Amino acid sequence: MCEPITSTARVARAFDAAAAYDGHAVVQRQVAQWLAARIVAVAPPGARVLEVGCGTGFLTQEAWPRLDRPDWLMTDIAPGMLARGLARMPGLRGRVMDGERPDLPGEAGFDLIVSSLAVQWFTDLEAGLERLAALVRPGGRMLVTTLAQGTFAAWHDAHRAEGYAAGSPAYPSTEALAAMALPGLDVTLRRFEQRHGSAADFMRALRAIGAGTPREGHRPIPQGAMRRIARWFEAAGAVAAYEVALIELRIPDPRPA
User: Fold this and answer.
1) How far apart are CA 96 and CA 78, in angstroms?
2) What number of CA atoms fall less than 13 Å from residue 188's CA on the CB side?
3) What distance in Å separates the CA atoms of residue 128 and residue 50, rounded to the nearest whole number?
4) Cα–Cα distance between 148 and 145 in angstroms, integer?
5) Count of CB atoms within 10 A of residue 111's CB?
6) Radius of gyration over alpha carbons of the chain, in Å?
7) How far apart are the first and last CA of the chain?
């Protein structure tokens, strides 16, 4: 009998199949630029950096050339994505890895762990971040961006207008993120927007970047209802809003300054 496909495997397959990612990942590139600026501001010389969910290399490309002699390890759960990221950044190291359950034998602690719009796919965000934080050296940091409540608000409103719930994941509120029991936690929120020509364009863009995987238990919506939902979304401007949280953890250093 076949083994059931886990949610992690479904996500990995979706991203591996996202051949048109770079052409549609407009907001993802903007978020990578925002995160890269913060990484450059705090990275020490010669920093050992672990990147979780490197994708096709947006964040690496933005941050790595601006750092002083970094040792940067790119990882991704999707082998195809990792291969494309490494092709964009020749000479860097890479490893296929589930960032929520990191497995890095032989790797020493990291000065920085970074991730751009990947950890929202964790099944348990707080536990996953806690496991990653254990890989950071004392005095180091973790800087990750993730999606927060309010993302795709107009799309959700259009579904509610017809009595349905959208298949997009339920993202945590800023308050819930700030309440996580993690060391030196700071959360900053920033809004990004992408305007689409139609609801169909929006859905095609999500599939193209591998983000079309519905949440567990979502039931397909009848075509007639989907057409009405599309009209609501388009009447509101067909704008996809991304509420992006920058989560920063500062790992305490017990040694005297």
Assistant:
1) 7
2) 11
3) 14
4) 9
5) 21
6) 19
7) 59
Strand partners, 249: 142, 185
What is the reported pLDDT for 2?
36
User: Which residues of the chain have a pLDDT value below 50?
Assistant: 1-6, 10, 14-19
Measured in residues, the chain has a length of: 257
Token pair 């364009």 is found at: 201
One-letter amino acid of 36? A
The amino acid that residue 35 corresponds to is L
What domains lie within the chain, and their CATH numbers? 7-149+169-192+243-250 (3.40.50.150)
What pLDDT is stored for residue 17 in this prediction?
43
* Residues in Cβ contact with 243 at an 8 Å cutoff, skipping those fewer than 6 apart: 147, 148, 149, 150, 151, 171, 189, 191
**Residues 172-218: tens digit of each pLDDT:** 999 999 999 999 999 999 999 999 999 999 988 888 776 667 777 78
Question: pLDDT by residue (tens digit) across 208-247?
Answer: 776 667 777 788 899 999 999 999 999 999 999 999 999 9
pLDDT recorded at residue 18: 44
User: pTM for this structure?
Assistant: 0.88
DSSP annotation of 196 reads -
Return all residues near 163 (Cβ < 8 A) that are at least 6 apart.
none
Q: In this structure, what token pair is assigned to residue 172?
A: 């945590």
Query: Identity (one letter) of the amino acid at 172?
Result: P
DSSP letter for each residue of 205-218: HHHHTT--PPPTTP
